[in-house]
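Checklist before submission:
- one chain only
- standard amino acids only
- sequence pasted in full

Submission:
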Amino acid sequence: MDSITWCNDFIEILYKKFPKKKQLTTALVELLELEREAVYRRLRNDVFFSAHEIVKIASTWGISLDEITHINSEQFSFQMRPINYLDPSADEIIFLKSVIKSINALKNFPTTEFMDICNKLPRQLAAGYPYINKFLLFKWMYQYGSEIETIPFSKIQISEEKLKLTEEYNKAIKNVPNNNFILDNRIFEFFANDIRYFSSIYLITNKEKELIKKDLIALLAYMQEIANKGHYPETNCKVNLFISQLNVDTNYSYTLSHEANICFVHVFEKLEIYTFDSEMITNFINWMQMKKRTSIQISEVDERSRVEFFSKQRALIEKL
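Returned file contents:
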């Protein structure tokens, strides 16, 4: 394969990630830290991408060697970007701000679709509740933080900047035009069990437990409002809520938009591995849509199941 043909194929792959030239150019300017004209020259093949640039693009955007060489090894490339959500670095703050900026941009594309299948509370719904968020950070620190010191719930300190980012994320995510959540039918039971465990080893006080309970009751009321209306009350963006009749093994999600498509497997409580690989995304969509076959939709339809589900969860939380 000669250089020009190879570069043409590589550029064609880039346009699959960002179909519009303006979008692709902007993304490359930010990623490669080049002037816009330098990016234009590369997209016109006046100048070839360097090996370093190709590696950086491929690793950041999840482009596999299979895609570049057109050899199908039946392997898919996933990446993970670990983030310290309790005390993020300056670079991590910049990255989180870029994520929020990207989410905000999705509201301009009415066909954008987000789908999450989860066995723990999805951050999209939990983001607006400070004690739930603090508990999730506390649990993450306990499981994956310091091996030397065990930090009680009372000593978890979240910076003002991180609180502001969480608030901005909470507002941004409500603007995604189409949203689907398939929840494990025991999702609140799992959360309650976690609270009981940490209470039993005296890392959470009774007073703190009551504050978390208050947030959980408020979250249930908010979710029930969403289920009744079929959309976020703040933005009217569509939300479909499903309850899975089979246990969900982990959290996984995809986002389909006019700009780019991506799928995630959520790991280690607050981290995720992700890929932009088109074939893998197609598989994800098919697998996740099939999950609806073993789930009951409780948003807008099936009022009896909706009332039963929320009544059961509320009783479960009240017993904490």
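Reviewer check: The CA atoms of residues 42 and 48 lie 6 Å apart.
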